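Job type: complex structure
Entries:
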Amino acid sequence: MGVGCSSSLPPTVNNPHCSITFPHTSAHTNPTSNHLPINWLARAHLQKPTKSPISKRLFTLDSARKTPTLKCGRTAQMEIEGGSDSKPILDLHSLDDNLVQKMVYDALVWSSLHGLVVGDRNVQRSGTVPGVGMVHAPFALLPTVFPENQWKLACEVAPIFNELVDRVSLDGKFLQESLSRTKKVDAFTSRLLDIHSKMLEINKKEEIRLGLHRSDYMLDEKTKLLLQIELNTISTSFPGLGSVVSELHRSLLKNYGEHLGCDVNCTPSNDAANRFSEALAKAWIEYNNPKAVIMVVVQPEERNMYDQHWLSFNLKERHNVTMIRKTMAEIDKEGEIQPDGTLLVGGHAIAVIYFRAGYAPTDYPSEAEWRARLLMEHSSAIKCPSISYHLTGTKKIQQELAKPNVLEKFIDNKEDIAKLRKCFAGLWSLDDADIVDTAIEKPHLFVMKPQREGGGELTFWINRHPLPLSFVLAFHMLTGLFYCLQGTISMVMM
Amino acid sequence: MGVGCSSSLPPTVNNPHCSITFPHTSAHTNPTSNHLPINWLARAHLQKPTKSPISKRLFTLDSARKTPTLKCGRTAQMEIEGGSDSKPILDLHSLDDNLVQKMVYDALVWSSLHGLVVGDRNVQRSGTVPGVGMVHAPFALLPTVFPENQWKLACEVAPIFNELVDRVSLDGKFLQESLSRTKKVDAFTSRLLDIHSKMLEINKKEEIRLGLHRSDYMLDEKTKLLLQIELNTISTSFPGLGSVVSELHRSLLKNYGEHLGCDVNCTPSNDAANRFSEALAKAWIEYNNPKAVIMVVVQPEERNMYDQHWLSFNLKERHNVTMIRKTMAEIDKEGEIQPDGTLLVGGHAIAVIYFRAGYAPTDYPSEAEWRARLLMEHSSAIKCPSISYHLTGTKKIQQELAKPNVLEKFIDNKEDIAKLRKCFAGLWSLDDADIVDTAIEKPHLFVMKPQREGGGELTFWINRHPLPLSFVLAFHMLTGLFYCLQGTISMVMM
């Protein structure tokens, strides 16, 4: 039996006009992992071995593969199936400034009362101690117009991508071979591959597999196609705050919808926090040790902790499951594996390991963290993700899967294959000389993406001044170029 | 027809042990108005003239005079009807320190996710801009044991006190005469009395009267009697955060009750935020101008703004009534009265004026604020409170009401009178030489209270060092003397 579930977040952009009217506009969260994507779908996925044919192994928690319905039917906002270019519902510049200011004030109050908060980087302890140095999370004041058919498509392909990740993860040889050249130039991926190799050597089986994934999409301006930018398989952020942002938007539309000419029912609710918790709880049940807990692996400083706390709160409140928080260093210090494979950390048996750290080289400042990762991988705990799921999320694998006849190795259903392929944006590595020439010639048609998770590792040079990636993305957004996507360059340095 | 409603907050003390384990223990809120009382009952009250006899004018919004029930019946915690001395449910010192630390962590997370926050005084804009510089509100980790019968009594007498306030407020001569000596020595009360006189002169009638009151009680250690310390008729704080604290306690008891030996059902829920909003909405409906709004009068800097925002959020969410925020200075600048008596502020017709400022001399730094107060009093808007209700809440009036045969002037029902009188703590002014001698001789038996609202205006001297009132209260609490109350001294300087 396998379990998968999908949940969606309505597409949101940070509207530049609104952002600059907010009292607090600096980025609070770590740009290497937590930048709020333009459009994303959060997806939960749990696989367990079964005797049933692989093509029928996916069991939905509730409504996976069933596209959520909108109460509004096809209104003006959602009807723009071929004509939308992901603009906010309304052009705020055309609105009365007093009205916008009122909405901003109400939104700030609402955020404070409903836990839409992050740690303020100006307050020293805000990344380590909850309840101090809080500031509203950065948010878009209103949701973005998004074509209903593309949104439904994103919901529809979510469980197919889950299935794809699971099947690719089971093909150790494919992973090792596809990443063999990356291994030579990327020390971090190389160490992940070493752990993967060790697991292959001892024939370690992950009998229960849990994925909490997030696909990031952009809508192509010219073709109006939904193009997948990346599929995150580790530390997918914002299921918690993303759900709350949707509620904020619904609250604002309820109160101001009449002035804006928008119907609150056109904004789909976002159940990601509950669905993620549900999937974690389901994994905990499958592990079948009532005394065990779920462990979330965290960075020593985490200003986006409340996004994670929403999950732990939901887990306790709705499923009576306890979640503990440990850093990689703490796991190295306190962790041990019992003869039956049970991972003990600080005396707690661990049923599920939920990674919200461990995706970037900076998460492994010493050998202690690598020891911890290996220890966890050796244990019988359900890893979210396992080393195989983690590697499956790399851009290089994404690129491999986009090659002709590769998807067919992993997915049987032709229709499913066609749906996935339709979402693939062009994806090239930098060793393709022709495409590099084209990119230099027409830079506005390309976006450069790092090989690893989290972004923010690229440095762009403009007029000899280095600019961090997040700035470049913002720059693109302000100039409107961010939506002119036709392909991505996978920056695999080989 | 008159409307009154009562709501209750379970008694809570700041347990010194827990408080000092919190990351943020400094007082965040203005001690002159917002110190969290040890035990309090929040009460809402709306009066409207009717032809029915005065003794039957009180109409309950829903469950006033009906004591809330507890699901636990009479458990060990609630049974201590004669033996409690308001201790926390458990002595935290006897608990495992890890357990306490876990509860503290969970409580801090819960507070952050559920809007139990205040502005941090270390962040400059935290008192003016919502969503920035937030920190968890100071709270007691667990509720306090409190005798069920006394709690029920407090709920029972709440509407009787409401009725008393209303009737006293209608007796302008009684108010003026009782406060005539205070007027000579207290410039602030003197100016309030001037406004009151002007209203009497023009025979101004408040046809719809709204009171949002809070009675603060202590349990006398020796007699086990519930003694009223003061009755607040203006700017009663913490209906919003108080309700959230109760939910926090219920959440902690739900998760840790088994370890603590406590049943969550023994903690009554606190509906003060909803009840206050309900009463404000009811007043808005009675005013009968669908375009009018409710105006909350605020201080220019208010770090306890989220307590107020909970009410405005509830008003909008549950009653679709808009609340705007204005300072006294803004009201002076933007306010005007139309020929029909309607108060316009910034173009908004005002149905209800809800004071969360205006109770202390510091709220009137210039003549502008006094002009604003007079303007509001002249208008047809429903004032919460009117100048009469405000004056009725002074200690001097409380003291007058405690004299023999005074209650009888205002309340007909003998049983009601007996119930109120049972709650009166001894109350003396400083012109009673005998009682002053007794207080000097046995200082631990007395608490000194200022004449006006908000506290914090007294300065105590210990070893020649001045100590603010809040420190003295904390000092008493730590030494246990805070509960040895036998009487209060009303510090009316005459």
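Summary: The interface with chain A takes residues 22-24, 105, 108-115, 117, 120, 125, 129-136, 251, 255, 306, 309-310, 312-313, 316-317 of chain B (CB under 8 Å). The radius of gyration of chain B is 22 Å.
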